[in-house]
Amino acid sequence: MSEIAKPSTRPLELTELLTLMIEVSEKINSTLDLDELLARIGEMVKSAIDYEVFAILLLREKAQELRVRFSIGHPKELVRTLRIKVGEGIVGRAAQLRRSVLVNDVQKDPAYIPSKPSIRSEMAVPLIVKNRLIGVIDLGASLPDFFNDSHVSLLELLASRMAMAIENARLYRRTVRQTRTLQLLNEISREMSSVLVLNQLLRKIGTLTKRLIDYHRFGILLADDQAQTFNAVINLKQDEHIPVKYTAPYGEGLVGAAADLRRTVVVPDVTKDPRYVCVNTETRSEMAVPLIHRDRVIGVIDMESPQPAYFTDEHVRIFSTLAPQIAIAIENARLYERVARSEARLERDLQRAQEIQMHLMPGTVPDIPGLQVALRFQPARELGGDLYDFLVYGKDRHVITVGDVSGKGAPAALYGAMASGILRSFAPHKPSPPQMLKNLNIRLLERQIEGHFITLIYAIWTSHTKTLQLSNAGMPLPILVRKGQCRPIHAEGVPVGLLEHAEHQQLTVKLASGDLVALFSDGIVEATNPKREEFGTRRLENVLRQNASRRPQEIVDRMFEDVKRFEQGRAPRDDQTM
Fold it and tell me: Whole-angstrom Cα distance, residue 462 to residue 469?
């Protein structure tokens, strides 16, 4: 590459102009690093126009203001704090008009925003990509009438190429940042789900959040429905724990607003928001994120910064993914502490724990387009190891999952609650059945809870195609009853939480009107009578076939009646779910 011509104020000849254009294209297209690109642009403009001060200001569309992203010759403090609204000053005027503005003597322009006392002339050229303004290039000189129409034409010619290069570099930077953020979110999710002690979890949430958002203050307030307040359970300042107790009544302050609105509230300047309740005098901007679990606000995360407009749309997007996982982690930790607090009190608390388990699983069947669904769960003891859940993948796709944890009682119930939490944490990403089983398997193996694993059917119903896509990790084969005939759905696989590299296949079943599909745990077919005979698959199929024309809940209830009659008073040896 030849050297760029020395700075000059004379118009460039055609040959020089073509050479400059080629060199500009080569230099700006050879890097995707935004900082390096902006520095190169400053150098290349300097080679053609001998400015004294130079700045590239990029537009923040939501705020409709321009901020200095790169500068040469301007005071550092000005660069750090300067915010120019579209329409303000010479730069804002160029942005508003979307055309270049040349001012031969800034002292005669009442809109001029001073940067250096020595500056007398200024030229601002908008940066436009695909008819969208992204910023402004601004040049200043100490002499009046320094810039001319040739300078304007030259910079306009360069600006279109520079704008495209800047936009490509920004897109690349956003892509890299988003990739890193997703990797970090995945790591944080994994770390959070490995902690079941509430106090440790809350502190870990604050520490891990710091890796995503460099907050000044961080707090988690948990809901107390009885007192109608949000109570601070952790307060961090610059990642250091501070023993500050704070209570926010329901509906008050930004914490109350986030809970009432059930969405993240971002305030760029708390002094201008009437909802703000002053607790920390240094706070200028604040973000409050509601923690929602099973359609209930269980708490609020509150972050503060002494910088105005510190929290961005990117921060909101990050927490739209992270907040549900935090809520699940908190609820799992609470459940774990309730169950594990004292083995001596376990017998006395089993009835209460059973109620909690029932609340963790859907108490009623949701409306699923195209299906009539019925269920029944009968634990062998006060607490059961079976589980079921309904998840939503969108208006047209719904998940039905049924599982069976190895073992019985409280350990199995706790393990099942953890598995349900893991499933729900992955559900927003809408994985396929094999991928969901793979994700669950990885997370369970990470816990290294000896002697426990889970069998599970994960099925996705798509109403407009009337198809059921399912994978089976060791559960009994589902039964399909069609036109009086029973046949098993041959979806098979190994349990999750057992083998490191377990693979699961996906089977798709097209259903027709009147078809009956039964998903059930092995407690049904392995129920025994006093002669130690098992109820078995054949009896189950007979009940299904004979009652296929009934309503689903009648079929389920009839099945449990027949099983109980078969047991002849013998206590169930395993949990029963259908």
Answer: 8
